[in-house]
Design goal:
The structure holds 2 protein chains of 2 kinds.
Chain A (H helix, E strand, L loop, with lengths): L1 H10 L1 H30 L3 E2 L6 E2 L5 H8 L1 H35 L2 H16 L2 H12 L4 H8 L11 H25 L3 H9 L4 H29 L3 H6 L7 H10 L4 H23 L3 H4 L1
Antiparallel strand pairs in A: 1-2
Helix pairs in contact in A: 3-4, 4-8, 4-10, 5-8, 8-10, 9-10, 10-13, 12-13
Chain B lengths: L6 H24 L17 H8 L1 H33 L3 H16 L2 H14 L6 H26 L2 H9 L4 H30 L2 H6 L6 H11 L3 H26 L8
Classes of the chains: A mainly alpha, B mainly alpha.
Amino acid sequence: MFAQIQAFAWRRPYLTTAAELSLPAIWFVVFYLAALVLLFVSAFWSVDSMTGEIQHSWTLDNFRQLITEPTYRHVAFRTIFMAAAVTLTDAVLAWPFALYIVRYAGPRLKTALMAAVMVPLWCSYLARVYAWRLILSHDGALNWALHVLHLPHQTIAYSNGAIWLVFSYLWLPFMILPVAAALERIPVSLIEASADLGAGAGTTLRRVLLPMALPGLVAGSIFTFSLTLGDFITPMLVGGAGSDFIGNVVYASVGVANNVPFAAAFATLPLLVMAAYLLVVRRMGAFEAL
Amino acid sequence: MKPPAPWLLRIAVGAILAFLFVPILIIMMYAFAASNVQSWPIGAFSLRWFHEAWADDEVRAAFVLSLQVASLATLIAVVLGTLAAMAVNRMQSGARDAVSFALVLPIALPGILTGMALNAYFTVAQMPLDFATIVIGHATFCIVIVYNNVLARLRRLPRSLTEASADLGAGAFTTFRRITLPMTASAIGAGGLLAFALSFDEVIVTTFTAGVQTTLPLWILGAIRLGQHLPEVNVVVFAVIVLTTLPVVAAQKLTGEAGALHK
């Protein structure tokens, strides 16, 4: 009997595939896709202000509130602007590092440098945010270093500047890895040909390396952009009074105000931004570089 | 022979390395500070707060909860991720890309989205936020880690091995047990270790799915926000760094390739 089932399945490989895929697919649909759909739907619900019960009738009030109240516009703008600034910063920082790994480092140094990118990537996220909170604090290491160098105290602590710095720090490995991978795929002969044709290092960088490594940059930017959009811990821990992100408002709407529909409405904004972003970057070949 | 790097590039690389590692070194040093005031430079060193943190029942309970959550989420992710990888390995590239894209969504989409979606879902389904809901959230975004590792390994295995096994009379289960599993075991193990590290440290999705439960990262977050037990926080943070880095080093040893570690 058992052997017959196996033989039956062997002649129909799609059955084996379907059997293997069924469990993960069910889990994923039940616990993730359904939740995403519900998030969308519940964004059109409301909460009864008297009873606190969720009203399952359709309304655009949540979205109207988001658009008309300037506070939420500022929060949304701040979040998206920060995501763009962090992405740009990491793209600039990742470039020399990735270039050095791929073009100049010997095999052993290369392995060591790749590991050096990997460790901060996996080392506790919360620990790294907290590290910056301590470094930037009044009695922290940065002020101490500035004092030793006879420089004035920093004023970046608990500000949007601190958030920008910490986000750029947190997500830098996510940018270095795909850029290095993209540079790795460029044949050395192309770079030699560019030099043979009279191009200097700068021209080769601009006309050969940059365009060919662009998919890697874009792949990295998906992570830096998305991770910044969806974060609220970093603004909470290193930001100041006026540093609320979309995530902070969502978190407060769920935890404090108990208004899930409003939180859901605001949480769909990062989704829409990411969807638009992914559509644009797909044209740039980013998915092949992921 | 590679050309020598321009000195400006070397300086940039050195500066970025310092940028990446100095904060981690500093935070690890704080765990050994004797003072209960957080200031730099550290005046006196002591192991005192390690004892204090270990004696703290809240910390211990959070630590145990995080271990339980990470273990169970890893187990689920290993089973589901391996199954998905085996299925996808047999698919055409179009279908393969679609599944890969779907599975990466929980970590590629903004974290509050996954957290918020699960929160709304559990609320509507009237599932109380508890141990089970934390595990469901973690397992969902850990699947892709195992999946990526196992799929990368499977794609390098020649198909002829499983065909030979079938030719010699082995059924699907025998082939899996004697051929596929031994050849992918290290990739599955590495994926599991990475999933464990990811789960053990996760905080954004967890804040939306934990209810009144406190995992170790949630305890750290709460203590930092309230400004309480900060010397203990330093010690716990030290432990979390070690506990999230060790599995990654082990995973690296298992697969012997840097590529396995991509999130």
